[in-house]
């Protein structure tokens, strides 16, 4: 009788654990779908269709038709890096196959830093005393009516800015061959420049000392497009133009 009693008790405990597990899975799945729906509203796209697409790709990963890397790439491409960081760990937890779960989590862990980097603006928002800070860069504020020596570049905003930032970071990762330390140094220096903690000339010196001159000549105009602060944008372009090789490349000239 004692054996039957303890056996029944164990079955009840197992059933309770399974019930809690099912409730947890339901909550995790609900969180994933809610995040996707919210993202679809932000993008102004058909939420049911996009969620159905997610379900199809999830099943393909579960059945082995997609690798973990392919599934992650799909999420990042369709919904953005921020959504990938939020939902993929929960997607991994929802997988019943331990091997699939481990593969997906390992892929998330390997790429999380680069995904998170794309969710944070390379340049911080301008601070209130932009004029005073701009003078530190050797650029006179606009209200002093000084004509800048370089033609301005139109900044990008919204999705266009996010796409450009992603493209920049992908090229940086390629140059550094995935060296996370070098990528972090690059993003740290761009934010220092954007926060007026590093003069434009010093930031440009870092770029030209780190990358090939041709790469810098392509990189600087793209970075300038991410700056909505006109003085910062002009200071960075001017630093490029004051470099003879940089100016020749930027102006489309040949030596």
Give a written overview of the molecule.
With 255 residues, the protein is mainly alpha-helical. The protein folds into 2 domains: 1-118; 159-252. Helices cover 75% and strands 0% of the residues. It contains 12 helices and no strands. The protein has helices at residues 2-43, 47-63, 68-79, 81-94, 98-119, 130-136, 158-176, 180-194, 200-210, 213-225, 230-241, 244-250. Helix 9 (200-210) crosses helix 11. The radius of gyration is 25 Å and the shape is elongated. The N and C termini lie far apart (96 Å). Residues 1-6, 16-20, 125-149 and 250-255 have low confidence and may be disordered.
- Overall body shape: elongated
The secondary structure category is mainly alpha
pLDDT below 50 for ≥5 consecutive residues: which ranges? 1-6, 16-20, 125-149, 250-255
Strand content: under 5%
Helix content: over 70%
Q: Please, how many domains? A: 2
Global Rg: 25 Å
Question: Helix count, per DSSP?
Answer: 12
- Distance between the first and last residues' Cα: 96 Å
Please give the number of β-strands: 0
Note the run of SSEs as H and E.
Answer: HHHHHHHHHHHH
Largest sheet: none
* Average residue-wise pLDDT: 76
């Amino acid at each position: 009788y004692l054996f039957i009693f303890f056996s029944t008790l164990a079955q009840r405990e197992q059933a309770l654990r399974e019930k809690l597990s099912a409730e947890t899975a339901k909550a995790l799945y609900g969180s994933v779908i809610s995040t996707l729906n919210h993202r679809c509203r932000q993008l102004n796209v058909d939420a049911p269709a996009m969620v159905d697409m997610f379900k199809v790709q999830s099943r393909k990963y579960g059945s082995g038709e997609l690798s973990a890397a392919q599934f992650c790439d799909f999420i990042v491409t369709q919904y953005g890096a921020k959504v990938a960081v939020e939902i993929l760990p929960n997607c991994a937890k929802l997988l019943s196959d331990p091997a699939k779960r481990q593969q997906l989590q390992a892929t998330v862990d390997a790429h999380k830093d680069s995904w998170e980097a794309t969710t944070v603006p390379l340049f911080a928002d301008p601070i209130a005393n932009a004029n005073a800070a701009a003078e530190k860069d050797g650029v006179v504020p606009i209200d002093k009516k000084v004509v800048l020596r370089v033609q301005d570049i139109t900044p990008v905003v919204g999705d266009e800015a996010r796409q450009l930032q992603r493209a920049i970071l992908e090229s940086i990762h390629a140059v550094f061959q995935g060296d996370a330390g070098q990528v972090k140094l690059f993003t740290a220096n761009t934010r220092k420049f954007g926060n007026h903690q590093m003069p434009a000339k010093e930031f440009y010196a870092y770029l030209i000392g780190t990358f090939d001159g041709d790469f810098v000549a392509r990189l600087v105009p793209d970075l300038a497009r991410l700056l909505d602060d006109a003085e910062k944008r002009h200071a960075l372009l001017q630093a490029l133009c004051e470099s003879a090789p940089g100016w020749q490349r930027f102006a489309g000239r040949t030596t």
